[in-house]
Amino acid sequence: MNTKTANQKMITALMFRLLPVQVVLVMVGAVNGLVSGFFASNYVGINAMTAVGLFLPVTTFTNAVSTLLVGGAAILCGKYMGQNEQEKLQNLFILDLLVSTAVSVIIIALYVICGTFDLTGFLTSDETVRPVFNQYLLGQAIGVFPMIIGNQMPAFLALENKGSRTFTASIVYIVVNILLNFLFVKVMHLEAFGLALASSLGLWAFMGVETQYFFTRKAFLRLKPQKIASGDTAEIIRIGFPGAATYIYMTLRGIMVNRLIESFVGSVGISAFAAANNILGIFWAIPGGMLAVSRLLISVSVGEEDRQSLTEIMRCMFKQYLPLMCAVSAGIICAAVPFTRIYFRDPTQAVYGMTVWGLRILPLCMPLSVIGMHFTCYGQASGKQAFVNLYSLLDGVVHVVGFTALLIPVMGMNSAYVANVLNGICTTILLFVYAAWKKRGIPSNMEELMVIPKGFGVPEDERMELTVRNMEEVTSISEKVHAFCTGRGIDPRRSYLAALFMEEMAGNIVDHGFTKDSKKHAVDVRVIHKENDIILRLRDNCIPFDPAERARLETGGDVMKNIGIRMVFQMAEDVRYQNIFGLNVLTMRI
């Protein structure tokens, strides 16, 4: 197995290990919509279901703000992790939560004012639906703060390697939401307000489970009073805006498409659209989770300027994520009728047929969205803001609204579904056109398709990637490190130290880390000659192990104990360890 294959396997395994928790997290909001839709259609009435549909653009706007904060903070966190800036991480954590709190207060005020004073006419002109929607909006206001704060936590929990807590919080939310919906809607008959209140209180439970960890001594990032440097606020907004812009555009798209449907089809069309989207929301959690995982890994790779890992993430998306999403989409299409019966049982109703067709057409755009999401995320992390903003505008508003407006006089309700598929096709083509324009020709490999700048990272002749799988390879790789350094003109002393340090630390990982369990392990070794420095990075998937802790251990009078590790820490210019997403990353600078 060559170094590239070993690194690809490690990254692929990591992406799939992180995926389930992130999917469950994204699924939280989808479960809310599914449960609310079920109780609305079965226990309240069609107007309540329409209210749920009308709320989709509103909650999309709230998600835009949340995405701006979590997207910017997560990418910055990844960069600081890649650069090993621990103090900046702590500051960013508290700053992000303070900004999130301030934004939550503003959004809550908007919800309450619009719901109380009937200022929701821009969403619907239906006089029978609007009072129901106003009550639903007031109930949702109670859950704005825990939703925004709760959305920030998973990225920080992932950095702490505590993603399982997000999974637990999600299960708690789902259980609480279902139980409270039954109590408020079926038993207490609180109707639309009860639907929203159940969801809001469930979000408070979700946030509570997540945040509790950061009050413990085990947490590296702590919820504690401290002096905050606010300098990263603008950077969070700058980096997160393209991702948030997508949701802002989706908000506008939702409002405009709803008005088109209301004008040409009627409120029943909004109910069908809401039903189809609520069911698909469960499955949209899969590409959403894929994006959450890739966002963290892409940002770390950009921070490390690791060209190889960056391209491997995209290869995994094409080779693993994309086929998985195609299979999921095919399954949804086949199950369109039974899924529709969750909400509507009478096939003679117009809403029934509209929902079935929505579940047969809309899934076709899901695989294409996986590609677009990943390239947008990479564009955000690498500073391609102009392209990301243009892409988001076309994807979020122009294509869907334009195709819907063009087709709805002829196709009726199906136009809204077909427009989403056509949008996916057009935006995917745009990615290839952009790469071909930048290259002045058809892209022939992943780096060209991603338009990675030539100056990103270090040139190939200034770096070397190797893989250690057993103790026998440790010595040979040490020799290769020595040869690389001497070949680059490094003085004999530092060339010798580089080889010695690599042999000592890689050997220690193989000797101790590989034997702690029955899993297959490998050490991904990277050697860089940059600005007259030699940088050695070792990355492995063994149990967490900080060599600095071993270096500080008392020897008990045995001067030879841990002598190798202590020698490295004494003689290297800088040694840093961090555990990123369950991977040990050791960086030595000579």
How does this model look, in words?
There is one protein chain. The protein has 20 helices and 5 strands. By secondary structure, it is α+β, with helices and mostly antiparallel strands. It folds into 2 domains: 445 residues, no CATH class; 130 residues, Histidine kinase-like ATPase, C-terminal domain (Heat Shock Protein 90). It has a 5-stranded antiparallel beta sheet, with helices on both faces. Strand 4 and strand 5 form a beta hairpin.
Distance between the ends: 29 Å
Range of strand content:
5-15%
Fraction of residues in helix:
over 70%
Q: What's the structural domain tally?
A: 2
Order of SSEs, N→C? Answer: HHHHHHHHHHHHHHHHEHHEEHHEE
Describe the secondary-structure layout:
Elements lengths: L2 H42 L1 H38 L2 H31 L13 H12 L2 H16 L3 H25 L3 H22 L19 H33 L2 H38 L2 H28 L1 H5 L9 H12 L4 H17 L2 H27 L2 H26 L6 H5 L12 E6 L2 H17 L4 H22 L9 E8 L2 E8 L6 H6 L10 H9 L2 E7 L2 E7 L1
Antiparallel strand pairs: 1-2, 2-3, 3-5, 4-5
Task: Name some characteristics of this structure.
6% strand, 20 helices, Heat Shock Protein 90, 590 residues, five-stranded antiparallel sheet, alpha+beta
State the gist of this model.
It contains 20 helices and five strands. The chain has 590 residues and is of the alpha+beta class.
